[in-house]
Specification:
Layout lengths: L1 E7 L5 E6 L8 H12 L17 E5 L3 H11 L2 H21 L5 H11 L4 E5 L6 E5 L4 E6 L1
Antiparallel strand pairs: 1-2, 2-6, 3-4, 4-5, 5-6
């Protein structure tokens, strides 16, 4: 639909606040399947990986972006956790460039990565896409890559 904010240097980071259609809905069965995939990671097995469905995206609700990265690491997929953490960190760099550090908008980034109200969307292909959806507000935040 459009952008409220778009910041990128096209090499290291991209961050965007996007206006989305008000009819975007995520099927709750996709969220349940995503949590089942997360729980199926076996931390005791070397090189455990989070399995993505054929469409290439996982959907999580009730968990923040930061918490999800931590759970992925705790469950045993170190590589994916690292990619998600890097994406969050790089997006923060872009966010800082776009707002004044003294503004209330600067604090908004920290609130976003800790917010449990949205739906976190992860893409399967490294570097893994990280999106935070707020369908009821017709907004999404793209953390990159």
């Amino acid at each position: 639909m459009g952008f409220n904010l778009f910041e990128t240097d096209s090499i290291s980071c991209t961050f965007a606040e996007i206006l989305i259609d008000d009819d975007v809905r995520i099927d709750p069965s996709l969220i349940k399947a995503s949590f089942r995939a997360l729980d199926a990671i076996d931390a005791a097995t070397p090189f455990s990986v989070l399995k993505f469905p054929e469409d290439g995206f996982l959907y999580f609700s009730g968990v923040s972006v930061a918490e999800l990265a931590s759970r992925i690491r705790h469950n045993g997929d170190e590589d994916l956790a690292h990619e998600v953490e890097e994406t969050i960190f790089k997006a923060k760099t872009c966010w800082r460039r776009s707002v004044n550090r003294r503004s209330t908008e600067f604090q908004r980034y920290a609130e976003l990565i800790l917010d449990r109200e949205g739906i976190v969307v992860l893409g399967a292909e490294p570097p893994n896409t990280v999106i935070l959806l707020y369908p009821s507000e017709s907004r999404a935040f793209y953390f990159g890559p």
